[in-house]
Design a protein that fits this description.
Helix content is 59%, strand content 1%. It contains 22 helices and two strands. The protein has a two-stranded antiparallel ribbon. Helix 6 (121-149) runs parallel beside helix 9 (178-194). It is globular, with a radius of gyration of 23 Å.
């Protein structure tokens, strides 16, 4: 098997093993008994079963089971917040349904075998599906990095940070959140964009209708097409239509109109996050910040600086290189192979702006900290793109020993944080300190931060804490 195939396959296997098999081992040994990380993921966990059983997108059959297992009522009638009433009075998901549709193939065995919906095998299957898609995103991020940097070692180091040093491991691969499959859709779409494939837009469109804030990255993708080959812009837009048409059908069929989409109730009421608290919190909150829980991504910010300050990025094709005249010193291919030749990356400057807008928008969301969950999940869709900038930074500094030492140190810290998140239950920390979205001092406490809390639990477990 060639290296170009072997490395992606190894990355996928290692990622899937860490995301699913490692958790399964913890679950079997009673070290982690959390089957579903959040009620947000419940509809997506059971909808594939409903689709395979011929009930469509209706969850009414599971309603009593849901109320018993995960009550969390939103009103006096006791209806769980994660369910809507359809126009026909049935119970349906309060969230978009792209994720459960993509997860359907994983449920074929449990459906064929007639496994009851109350079986633990259902959420375990959901975890398997989520782990699979996030592991696939690891592969596409790696392939994109190889094309951009022309350096396999840089690409491997960068994608290891993404796969094991971010909440890809601790959160997005651990339940059928929207985030994990969105990471796959966005990373695969990005990879296809690098080859100027117009049909990449269908992946960005699916990501948008899975989570509307992904429209920021979809707009960037369209800008990318305009920069690279504007003749393909119209075809790019055409390929984005199928998910839109499906969403229109779903909204009309189940919600009574094209404007009655799953987030219609929240779209004008939940943007109550305080600026700049939410924006900064997503980056440096002691319990939820990206740069605190995954400090290795500090280098991604430096990579963004490089794109703007140095006005250049590594490229993969000789046609993209800026080379001085050979002046009789050899042919063009020889000149390219002996010089570090780069070209301005306007599309990557636009991507950095999209990332900034994404963080600003999510910082305005009332639950910018992600509610009861581990880490910075509300901006997890940014991780594939941040990893690209991380790779750009490393490609400039790969031979600098001091840079690599700092990188390895922060990478190890980031990985350890993710392992800790799987060994300790974040729900206990939330139950102890969570004061809600309006009194947010608990999100800025150092002594009561989630990691410090986990450290105290570890010391107590081993008898070192009074």
């Amino acid at each position: 098997m060639s290296t170009s195939l072997r490395i992606p396959l190894i990355l996928f296997i290692l990622s899937f093993f860490a995301y699913f098999v490692f958790w399964l081992g913890l679950n079997i040994t009673s070290k982690n008994d959390l089957l579903i990380q959040s009620e947000d993921a419940i509809p997506a966990t059971y909808l594939p079963l409903s689709l395979l059983d011929g009930r469509g997108f209706v969850l009414t059959e599971y309603y009593n089971y849901f109320k018993k297992q995960w009550p969390n009522p939103e009103n006096k009638l006791g209806k769980p917040y994660y369910l809507f009433n359809s126009q026909n009075g049935e119970y349906i998901s309060a969230f978009p349904v792209i994720v459960p549709i993509l997860a359907v193939p994983f449920y074929l065995p449990v459906s064929i075998l007639g496994i009851h919906y109350s079986s633990d095998l259902i959420p375990i299957t959901a975890r398997c599906a989520s782990a699979f898609f996030v592991a696939l995103s690891v592969v596409f991020v790696y392939l994109s990095l190889v094309k951009i940097t022309r350096n396999r070692k840089v690409s491997i180091l960068s994608v290891v940070a993404y796969a094991f040093g971010s909440i890809c491991w601790g959160t997005t691969s651990q339940s059928l959140w929207q985030h994990g499959i969105n990471q796959f859709l966005l990373s695969a779409g990005f990879y296809l964009l690098l080859f100027n494939k117009s049909y990449s837009s269908i992946l960005f469109s699916l990501a948008v209708f899975s989570r509307p804030t992904n429209i920021i990255f979809a707009v960037w993708a369209f800008v990318y097409v305009l920069i690279k080959d504007r003749k393909k812009a119209f075809v790019f837009l055409l390929w984005s239509l199928p998910p839109l048409l499906f969403q229109f059908w779903y909204d009309v069929t189940y919600l009574g109109g094209v404007l009655n989409h799953p987030y219609s109730v929240q779209q004008f009421t939940n943007w109550q996050g305080r600026f700049p608290e939410g924006f900064l919190g997503l980056l440096i909150s002691p319990s939820k910040g990206l740069l605190i829980l995954s400090p290795v991504f500090i280098f991604a910010l430096t990579g963004i600086y490089y794109v703007w300050r140095k006005n250049r990025i590594p490229r993969t094709s000789a046609l993209d290189y800026v080379t001085p005249p050979t002046q009789g010193r050899g042919n063009l291919s020889e000149e390219i192979s002996h010089k570090s030749c780069y070209k301005t990356g306007l599309e990557y400057k636009a991507l950095s702006i999209a990332l900034l807008v994404f963080f600003l928008v999510m910082g305005k969301w009332i639950h910018w900290y992600g509610g009861w969950s581990f880490g910075y999940r509300m901006v997890s869709e940014a991780l594939p793109f941040l990893t690209i900038f991380l790779g750009i930074y490393l490609s400039f500094n790969f031979k600098k020993t001091n840079v690599l030492r700092r990188f390895y140190f922060l990478l190890i810290v980031s990985i350890l944080v993710q392992v800790i998140s799987l060994l300790f239950d974040f729900r206990y920390w939330h139950a102890t300190y969570d004061a809600g979205p309006f009194s947010t001092s608990w999100l800025w406490s150092l002594k009561d931060s989630m990691l410090v809390y986990f450290a105290r639990l570890a010391l107590i477990k081993f008898g070192f804490y009074p």
